[in-house]
Records
---
Amino acid sequence: MFADKDISKFNNIETPFYYYDTDLLQKTLQTCATAAAPFQFHIHYALKANFNQVLLQQIKDIGFGADCVSSGEVRRAVEVGFDHKKIVFAGVGKSDKEINEALDLDIFCFNVESVQELEVLNELASKKQKTAQVAIRINPNVDAHTHHNITTGLDENKFGVNSWDLPECAEMLKSCPNLKFIGIHFHIGSQITNLDVYKNLCVRVNEFAKWFEDKGFTLQILNVGGGLGIDYHNPDHQIPDFESYFKIFHEFLEVKAHQEVHFELGRALVGQSASLITRALYIKKGKKKNFVVLDAGMTELMRPALYQAYHKIENLTQTKKLETNASFVKYDIVGPICESTDCFGKEVEQPESFRGDVFAIRSAGAYGEVMASKYNLRDAIRFVYSNEV
Ligand SMILES: *Cc1c(COP(=O)(O)O)cnc(C)c1O
């Protein structure tokens, strides 16, 4: 548990801040790399989960590529030193400016999400007398069995090319001299904890790969995206089961000798390696409810307000004090922002809490710092790295 750590070092640090456990990140990256190695799977880290430069440096050093969803992320990846031949660029709405920038940076592959985007990319590449490598992002209509706001691979979702548009897509690819078609790409959602979902994905990938190869195309890349979930309820059970995850693809994906399998993992790599550290400003005792008002809110960690996400919350000060015989109270744990959704948890059992207590909101490494906003003209988010305190 987080409270086992020496929190006295936090006493003089202004809250709220993200606390990054760089050792845990290193272990997680190493475990993932080791699990992928026997199958020669290629990992691209999805920058949108967390583009903090210190973390990116560590991820780059392990040898992973970068999966970007804006030219800003492509630029960041290049700045940090990711090999441009290991950068892929997805996104349903790439602007001309973004495409041009990525062409200039000679990225490995554009993951294209519509027939019209192929046409535009071909035109922009031809103006630069370049050839852009493309993979088609296909919407495979596979249910990820995750929260509906983070499902991306169903017919009703905006992402990717739908199966009924593939014939048109194939025609377009044949008529675009400045595109080199290298593979197919999928990403069906995030925080996927039921690994059977990936078996269903493999079946669909095999079908689509066969469809293209029957049409005479050669697929060099099968990119199955990311989405592997983490255990938010047990943040101390910290490293995701990469071995079982990769084994499913090894077993169920039909990979030809000339093909590479690519993954785009975000959350699973960085999610457990940060906590949001915050202090209780006020304790409010109501008739029906008790509130802990923290100095962190949805402006620092938006996931609970955005998609009712669960994060484990620990009162570090009291857990340390009361070992046994603790008296527990149910609190709504809220932030200071002027929105009723600015709530990290309702009816959360905690030791009796007091003004000044330090809290950790766990598993905040993915989609945390990167979603911080200035709403209410809040201070910029601060962060602290475990190897620096
Ligand atoms: C967000 C995203 C990912 C990473 O998703 P995680 O759930 O964080 O693993 C991978 N690929 C694409 C195209 C994405 O948009």
---
Amino acid sequence: MNHLLRCPVCGKTFPDHGELACPDGHHGLLRSIYPEKQLAIRNEPGIFRYADWLPVQQVPRTQSSPVTFRSLGFAKEVGLSNLWIGFTGYAPYKGAYVPTCSFKELEAWPTVQRLKETGVGTLVVASAGNTGRAFAEVAGVMNQQILLVVPKRGLERIWTSAPAENVTLIAMDGDYSDAIAIADKICDLPGYTPEGGARNVARRDGMGTVFLDAAVTIGKIPDHYVQGVGSGTGAIAAWEAALRLIADGRFGETLPRLHLAQNLPFIPLVSAWQARRRTIIPEIDMPHAEEAIRAVNADVLTNRRPPYAVPGGLFDALSACGGRMYGITNAAAESAGLLFEETEGIDPDPAAAVACAALLAAVDRGNIGEDACVLLNITGGGYKAVPQKHHVVPVETIRPGELPASIPEKSHV
Ligand SMILES: *Cc1c(COP(=O)(O)O)cnc(C)c1O
Ligand SMILES: [Zn+2]
């Protein structure tokens, strides 16, 4: 039996033909409904161990997967007795072999596979860096044509572990939100398919495997979940994974509390949630956005249009789980990241360093008790250990609002 999709607005369920939205046009995040209520772990080396709860029929072979391990060193520094790390990145001695070093690769694998099963055309991806790198890698391995739109600031992050194939890269002035706007326009052209971001169930369920892997490794749903968030998609995915685990019956009955962090001074989600407001008001929640975004170290956390208010989105996740949001300075993130590297031996992505600082703040403020079972999502890291980085070279550079003069057929590497 195949999985179905359900609209959170009208409740209608229907078979998955690659939809990103309800056929009746409702504004809400579709959710996948899997026939297997109990998770059976498959004999696969990577993420597709969890294919029961991924929206794909076929299972491509990859070693890429989240890993979960108990923290000793960092836990001691933070003052926790039961801290678990969910890590996606490159650290062979931990069994972690994600060459592009972030949990965006967990999104890319099922997204590309789902597109192959349900859609056609060139996949269009807008990225601040990590998503583009992940999709470039997976597109090469899976023989899927993709078009990446990346702000110049993120260009140095677009590399692959083998020379890139099937990838066309366009660089642009402006930030991540400008890249999304250009990608949207390109998707109006025939032959181009949007990857859909948070609206794509494959992206969310792919990210949700971090939470599944943690619950399976720990033996239960953790009490607290800590992550650095830009769009909040990873946190929505953790909530959805927890709901499935509760329905499974073997992992506990309580949703985890969400402790989510953004990098000061750009913290729209923190600001809106602290006011318990469902909508983000740009003047209040992200004043001087461009300047604020430029001042942030972890720029993968700077999304100006996150899926927060949308039904089934981050506001609903925080409301269901109970949640706290933290604004973290560059300095606090840097020192927490260094502490993590010293104690766990993995260099964290700047966004993961923000999560490390949030965990320190949460314990400090008494939001997390010292014996609570805590999952810290180290969403990226291990860059220093990656053996080879082949940089992908842009075929064109454009300004915000422009369309590329010609969209080239073939990749330039
Ligand atoms: C994208 C990203 C995040 C933020 O994830 P969201 O789902 O957008 O909130 C955190 N850490 C890393 C390393 C990322 O690449
Ligand atoms: Zn609907």
